[in-house]
Design brief:
By secondary structure, the chain is of the alpha+beta class. The protein has helices spanning about 30, 90-95, 135-140, 145-150, 160-165, 250-255, 260-275; strands spanning about 40-45, 50-55, 60-65, 75-80, 105-110, 115-120, 180, 185-190, 195, 205-210, 215-220, 235-245.
Length: about 280
């Protein structure tokens, strides 16, 4: 993660006082001021082309906010308790009879459990089909700028960013699953051709993911591979993690489809049995 303490958009931040030495800048106040201060765990400002990963416990929610028009954030998810269990795109789509995600949809694992649910969404369409920008395509479209010559202005592909992140947790190329490209829209015509909607999201749009299990989540803010923009200029994204609690009985996502209710029930059961040492 880049240091945001001294950029044009973010003026230098003073060192924390000795009486309160934890330097936890409340970035979320800039892009998610409606969140309750006593519920927010942490927040980040992620530059375009950045990447990072978190282990997020069940009952936390990640809000992702586009800070620029046309931002993209590619997300992959794994069970933090057993990383062989991970997000399964085909099962999630066919169970919910959809080819895109929005509020109410659940990201299901290959074990039939809900890893996360989309509980809020101002965009209305997020792409699960378009995969990742890789190095060959990135160099073909944008040229090459490496760290030795461009430092933090280097170009980063989504695939490399996610491989770096899952590698920190003992995973490798064989474990990289299809991502969800939040804030991006890809539609499919009658001939099966993909069509990318440029600048689909607007600055200020947000989407929230509630963790239904303890989840390892990795992300990249590199451009979508189908983005036709001629220059490498991915948008910034704000992230805030807050304590939401797990899905209640009358939860919107739980009742969205019978398949969702079963997937969340399976996650509830798994988490209850594991948390209680059964």
């Amino acid at each position: 993660m880049e240091n945001f303490s001294a950029t044009n958009d973010n003026p230098p931040v003073a060192d924390p006082p000795v009486t309160d030495p934890v330097d936890a800048v409340a970035h979320w106040r800039r892009f998610a001021p409606d969140l309750a201060a006593d519920k927010v765990l942490f927040s980040e400002l992620v530059p375009g082309g950045g990447h990072w990963s978190y282990v997020l416990p069940r009952g936390t929610t990640l809000r992702m906010t586009a800070l620029d028009d046309g931002a993209n954030i590619s997300v992959v998810l794994y069970s933090a308790r057993e990383k062989l269990e991970r997000y399964n795109m085909p099962d999630s789509l066919k169970a919910q009879h959809t080819a895109h995600y929005t509020r109410g949809h659940v990201l299901m694992s290959d074990m039939g459990r809900a890893l996360a649910s989309i509980t809020a969404d101002t965009v209305g369409w997020h792409d699960p089909l378009g995969l990742l920008l890789d190095d060959p395509l990135m160099h073909e479209k944008y040229g090459e700028r490496n760290f030795q010559t461009a430092r933090n202005g280097m170009y980063r592909s989504g695939r490399d960013g996610l491989l770096i992140e899952i590698g920190k947790h003992g995973l490798s190329k064989r474990d990289l699953v299809a991502p969800v490209n939040f804030f991006s829209k890809v539609s499919v015509d009658g001939e099966g051709r993909f069509h990318f909607a440029p600048r689909h999201c607007k600055a200020g749009d947000h989407v929230e993911l509630r963790m239904e299990m303890d989840v390892l989540l990795a992300f990249s803010t590199a451009p979508h591979p189908l983005d036709p923009a001629p220059a490498y200029a991915p948008g910034k994204v704000g992230l805030a993690v807050w304590l939401s609690g797990s899905a209640p009985k009358d939860d919107y996502c739980r009742s969205f489809r019978p398949e969702n209710a079963r997937a969340i029930h399976n996650a509830d059961l798994f988490s209850h049995l594991n948390c209680n040492g059964v």
